[in-house]
Design brief:
By secondary structure, this protein is mostly beta strands. Helix content is 0%, strand content 40%. It is built from no helices and 19 strands. The protein has strands at 12-16, 19-20, 22-26, 31-34, 42-50, 54-55, 62-65, 67-68, 86-89, 94-97, 103-104, 106-109, 112-115, 120-124, 126-130, 134-137, 148-152, 168-172, 175-178. The strands form 5 sheets. Strands 1, 2, 5, 6 and 7 form a 5-stranded antiparallel beta sheet that branches. A 5-stranded parallel beta sheet has the order 8-10-13-16-19, with no helix packed on it. The chain is extended and about 75 Å long. The termini are far apart.
């Protein structure tokens, strides 16, 4: 039996989480399509049906629907959080941080917050990654190639969190996953002798 996709556009059907994916390009070995809308976050398989050949293998056909920080749909059809707001990413929600943020009073990550692959700044007085939450900048297999900034704001007189204090990035039963470009040389020569105590 010949392998590959159907040469007829209507002979290939793609579904993600049961939602049709609109075909934008195809060859006998490649299909590109635009996903249909779906509310909420879900990890699922891509299903490709080829006329006369059945369903394509799903071994490496993983897909994840996620929310985008800058979209009002992510925040219940409202503007994204503003300066001084407290923000909670609930368990089960994954958000792609695609814009610089204003300074939040706090950010609690119980779901997932993933930095988009571009220069991004996350600003907050306190950031808590808790209860299985995840804050991710790049991965081990795909390191972050731009500049990611996590900037903590505040001063000594800000409201203190029990145990953690103020101006904090804390992880409790969560994951902080940071992977950047490889730095080939991690040391340098001193211009002069460094004396003890100076």
């Amino acid at each position: 039996m010949p392998i590959g996709f159907s040469p007829n556009k209507d002979g290939n059907k793609v579904f993600i989480a049961g939602i049709p994916c609109k075909m934008t390009y195809f060859t006998k070995t490649e299909i590109r399509c635009t996903t249909g809308p779906r509310k909420g976050t879900i990890e699922t398989k891509v299903r490709v049906e080829v006329d006369g050949k059945g369903m394509a293998t799903q071994d490496q056909a993983d897909f994840q629907y996620i929310d985008v920080w800058s979209s009002p749909y992510t925040w219940g059809y409202k503007n994204p959080p503003g300066k001084g707001d407290g923000v909670v990413i609930p368990a089960g929600q994954t958000i792609l941080l695609d814009v610089d943020t204003p300074v939040f009073s706090f950010l609690v990550v119980r779901g997932e917050l993933i930095f988009d692959e571009k220069n991004i700044a996350l600003n907050s007085e306190k950031i808590l990654v808790v209860d299985g939450g995840k804050l991710q900048v790049g991965t081990e297999t795909k390191p972050f190639e731009h500049k990611a900034k996590i900037i903590l704001h505040g001063h000594l007189h800000n409201k203190r969190l029990p145990i953690f204090g103020t101006k904090v990035l804390a992880v409790r039963e969560g994951t902080l996953d940071l992977h950047g470009k490889v730095v080939p040389i991690t040391w340098t020569n001193l211009a002069k002798t460094a004396l003890p105590g100076l």
